[in-house]
Amino acid sequence: MDPELEALLRAWEAYDTQERGSEADRLLAVYESRLTGVAVARKVAPEALHRAVKWAFRGWNRAQSHLPRMPPKA
Question: Are 9 and 57 in contact (CB under 8 A)?
Fold first, then answer.
């Protein structure tokens, strides 16, 4: 996976899983900063990139939840 896209997905995940409050606001600011940087570097609209990240996050999140896990210890 492209490192910039993965960083955006992880930043969005950090924000999305955080309960709302000051920490969520900080994580959103980090995400938006990264999003803007990648959008400028790739010459795309930040809004379009954000939509793409949210779309990719759904599939990425679903794939992460289907990873094999170790059974609990008895």
Answer: yes
Burial (CB count within 10 angstroms: exposed 0-12, middle 13-18, buried 19+), residue 32: middle
Phi-psi domain of 34 (left: phi exceeds 0; alpha: psi -120 through 50; beta: other): alpha
What's this model's pTM, rounded to 2 decimal places? 0.75
Supply 21's token pair.
């409050």
pLDDT at residue 35 greater than cutoff 90: yes
Q: Cα(first)–Cα(last) distance of the chain, in Å? A: 36
- Rounded to whole angstroms, the Cα distance separating 63 from 47 reads 24
Look at residue 1 and give its three-state secondary structure: coil
Distance, CA of 22 to CA of 66 (rounded, Å): 31
